[in-house]
Amino acid sequence: MMLSVELSHYPLTEDYKSVIRELIARLQASQVEVRPNRMSTHIFGEYQQVMDVLADTMKWSFEKHGKAAFVAKFIEGDRR
């Protein structure tokens, strides 16, 4: 099953832009398709693969950069 996700990341730090760029680069290095834009990042791929990438990326973000808010919208299917 394919999954489409719209993800917004709000690092609770003054240097939030570099943290967001680093997170997007990490997502782009994964096995899912990533399409960033000015307001959010869209992620497409197989359900379990997308969920694993999101879980790993959020854990990495919390461990490396501390507190952050993530907002995600999930829809079944390929919504490219």
TrEMBL record:
SUPFAM superfamilies: MTH1187/YkoF-like. Residues 5-64 form the Thiamine-binding protein domain. This is Thiamine-binding protein domain-containing protein. The lineage of its organism: Bacteria, Pseudomonadati, Pseudomonadota, Gammaproteobacteria, Alteromonadales.
